[in-house]
Amino acid sequence: MSANDAPRAQQPSATYDSAFLKACRREPVPHTPVWFMRQAGRSLPEYRKVREGIPMLESCMRPELVTEITLQPVRRHGVDAAIYFSDIVVPLKAIGIDLDIKPGVGPVVERPVRTRADLTQLRDLTPEDVSYVTEAIGLLTGELGATPLIGFAGAPFTLASYLVEGGPSRTYENAKAMMYGDPELWADLLDRLSDITAAFLKVQIEAGASAVQLFDSWAGALAPVDYRRSVLPASAKVFEAVAGYGVPRIHFGVGTGELLGLLGEAGADVVGVDWRVPMDEAARRVGPGKALQGNLDPTVLFAPTEAVEAKTREVLDSAKDLEGHVFNLGHGVMPSTDPDALTRLVEHVHTLTAR
């Protein structure tokens, strides 16, 4: 079926009884599963070698390269899940948005979305637009076997922020000006992005992804009242669009301590927590019926091993009464992180939590 048709529940697969998917479903696990946001990336010398001379967006469109990069941290670290190597702006590039990822800067949009006429840039995404994703996931699932693959996409608010600002921003003044000053245009923009995002996630699930994560990287810039009114409906539409597949849906944002309950309310099965809120307090804010993911501070990995292990125990102790817990960092792996520190961390979590 196409990515625009109604979803259907997936049948149990080789990954169904993995520790990662069990934790997402809030079932008993043999050990706390571990994976890291940005685990496939610049912290790995093998990544830098295969990416040498290849622009970021081009690397996302080469199925064999995507497969190799996605597998690298699974081989090296023994993590409990792989995450598909891509970028949140890939679906925007696929529908013809003139953008590029500039080294040291990030995504830069040639023609920012500022008026209603600019919405014409945002056509529907079809599976044919991202055929390289389907091919890469087919290759990956064949290699990964019982290790789950996490698909992902950028959430409508974060994508809208890039489109309206024209690139990365610390203040989001243009995006917020539209949200406050022209709420109808803002709602229409996010609604279109929710359709594009849902279509992108459907492609990944249908190709074999065992779970999906929605990254709302910049949602922490919002007050709860503004998130509920101006952002939550679009994110909820994305989660609802893929609900019928039966795969776990993860929701993560940075600086979202005040939004944790709303992130869960949007429809996620698993709520990602950054390092600012202890896991037990995050569970109180999210409420029952959700697994949680997180939340070691990524900078802890630059400390001596004893300090990393001590902080890891703090996270695990805080999470010991959760209905389901997936261990992760509170944000992505930093580029200068020692890969061996990540390998040791995975082994440490597995050892401490072995049932």
Roughly how many Å apart are the termini?
40 Å
- The number of E-state strands comes to 9
The amount of helix comes to 40-55%
- N-to-C series of helices and strands: HHHHEHEEHEHHHEHHEHEHEHEH
State the major sheet. 7 strands, parallel
Chain-averaged pLDDT: 95
Could you list the spans in which at least 5 consecutive residues all have pLDDT below 50? none
SS field, number of helical segments: 15
- The helix-and-strand class reads alpha/beta
Overall spatial form: globular
Rg result: 19 Å
Your description of this structure?
- The structure is a single chain.
- With 355 residues, the chain is an alpha/beta fold.
- It has helices spanning 19-24, 45-51, 56-59, 63-77, 90-94, 131-144, 156-165, 173-181, 183-207, 224-230, 232-241, 260-265, 279-286, 305-318, 339-353, and strands at 82-83, 99-102, 106-109, 149-154, 211-215, 249-252, 270-272, 291-296, 325-329.
- Helix 9 packs parallel to helix 11 (232-241).
- The longest helix is centred in the middle third of the chain and has 25 residues, at 183-207.
- The chain is globular and about 55 Å long.
